[in-house]
Amino acid sequence: MRFWWLTLSSLTIQGIRVQDSDSLQRLLGSCVQPWLPDETACSARSIREMPTLLDEAVYTVEYASHPISSNGLKSLSELLSFTHSALVITEAWQVFSAEQTQPSALLFEYFARDFGPKAILPASISDGGIPIWENQAVVGWRVAADKGEWLQGANRTTVGTATGKILNQWFREVVLWGKRHPGYNLFNLWDSTDAVTRKSYMGDSVCHSFTEWSLVDLFRLGADFAIQHPLCRNYFSFITNDSPRKLNMTTPADSQTVLEFYKRLEPLTSRSFHDLPEFSSNLLSAVRGEISQSPGEVVLFQRGLEDSGAGEYFRADLVKPYFGVKPSQLAQRMILPWQNIPANIEGECAYGGSPKRLGQGRLETDDLSRRQDDWEREIETLDQKEMELHQSQLRLIREQTAMFIRDLSVLQGEVTALKEGLSGSLAPHSPLQNDFKEQKAKLLSQEQLTLSLQKRVDFLERLLGESVDRHAQEIFKAKTAHAKLAGEAKAREAHHASVADRLGYIEQLVGDSFDKHSKEIQTSHSRLESLHSRLTACESQANQDSLRDRVDFLEKLLGESSQKHAE
Q1: Alpha-carbon distance 458 to 391, whole Å?
Q2: Alpha-carbon distance 377 to 385, whole Å?
């Protein structure tokens, strides 16, 4: 936002005189067109597209309004006296030249790009049930001569004067206002029909909104406005006594509320009405829907900023008089800060707003008063007709209630007779009923017994099942242990067989050794005997050997024998 303002402040200011033909051409050099289909107005989307006036020049500011008679809402516009308004800026006198030329003028206006049913109703409904709006509205400017025929038939009122400097500042504000009001909205939401004293919950966004805001803003910037004559504009206001509720279009209930409301409102834009009372009656039926005694509701759409296409919906309950459709309510004065509003302003704008310029004609006062009285009397009969309808409905309800009471009394008598007849017919059936009750009691006791037995059987089955499972587990464990013991026994048997073989071998070895030793002992005995024999022989030999030699010899011999046995 800061960058945008810096851009605005850095633009080169080049003052252009409106009534100078060369300057006028340079002025139109900033005009961007065509920027809308079938539209010759210059764009006011940015300050670059706005004109730049001489700061010292003085300009006359006029308020111009003209009845709307050719659009998609022609019959409704004529019936409600709709008007279109604009501001006309004309240079009052030349500053730098003594030559007087015919002054040119610039016209500034706010308008719907497609003024017709699409300006107040959705253009279509999407597949998802969301209304699609084509109520885009824009601010544009042009040389007033381009709209000469419109200005010739318009009511033009001089409001005052403003310098070029003030107007250049206002141009910047115009750009911002247009960005804040990208959508056309015909309706206000007030707490009363009086534009002076009303409390506004939601405001409209129409051509008059722009012109009224422009006059207030120019006065704030320093324009010299002093006119006390009322400047009139259209208001179309729904009446409520509470703030509207924002609807959530993602919920089915709120979405359905929006669709039903605009569906009921649609016929009002296409049919013709003879007079305001007929229109008011149809509008009242539209806002009430199918419930004739409901106070009615209104759903208003506010378009999102920057022409995004999105927007928000608001719903409000209406209170009497529901809406302002009297001539004195449809056309009222603008609320301007420099004006002193008198106490009695009833009907001052009822027919046509600001007075026409001299020479353009005026309706006769008596005829206007007569027509206004006739219309207001017809409109005032609406409440009386509504009250009569309400009383008729109450009378019908009372008659229907009386008939209902009579029919109810007859039905009560018939019910009493039926009860008496039924009591007489029930007497013979009393024994049967008693027997039936006894049988039922026995059956109940039997069922309880059966249930008890069933529970016991279930318990036993559960117990047996648990026992079977437990025994199966124990048998499995026993088999496992048995198999383990059998394996261990086989292992032991195999081990014992090996020990027996070894013992047999040892016994055999010991036996063989015993036999061998026995034989060797016998051999040793034999040898000892032989030695003994020899010793005896030796002793008997010659005495040349001494006893020592003989003993050594024997020891040696015994030693060899012992060593041999040891081996």
Answers
A1: 75
A2: 12
pLDDT at residue 273 in the model: 64
All residues at 6 or more sequence positions from 538 whose CB lies less than 8 Å from its CB, including other chains: 545, 550
In this predicted structure, the answer to whether residue 359 has a pLDDT above a threshold of 60 is: no
Give the start-to-end residue ranges of the domains of the chain. Answer: 2-338+346-356, 445-566
Find the helix packing angle between 276-288 and 365-426, rounded to 10°: 40
Are 311 and 181 spatial neighbours (Cβ–Cβ below 8 Å)? Answer: no
User: How far apart, in Å, are the Cα atoms of 301 and each of 118, 209, 255?
Assistant: 13, 16, 13
Q: What is the DSSP string of 409-427?
A: HHHHHHHHHHHHHHHHHHG
The yes-or-no verdict on residue 98 having pLDDT over 60 is no
Q: Which residues contact 150 (CB under 8 A, 6 or more apart)?
A: 66
pLDDT one-digit tens code per residue, 386-418: 677 778 878 888 888 888 898 888 888 889 888
Which pLDDT score is estimated for 354? 44
Here the tokens at position 120 are 């107040």
Q: Which residues contact 560 (CB under 8 A, 6 or more apart)?
A: none
**The one-letter amino acid at 173:** E
Packing angle, helices 276-288 and 252-265, rounded to 10: 160
Q: State phi, psi for 354 to the nearest 5 degrees.
A: -65, 145
> Mean of the pLDDT values across residues 332-348?
85
Task: Tell me the residue type at 377.
Answer: R
Give the CA radius of gyration of the chain: 62
**What DSSP designation does 271 have?**
S
Task: Give CA–CA dist 557/450, Å, rounded.
Answer: 115
CB-CB contact of 18 with 104 (8 Å): yes
Confidence of residue 481 (pLDDT cuts 50, 70, 90): confident
Quote the tokens at residue 395: 């009378």
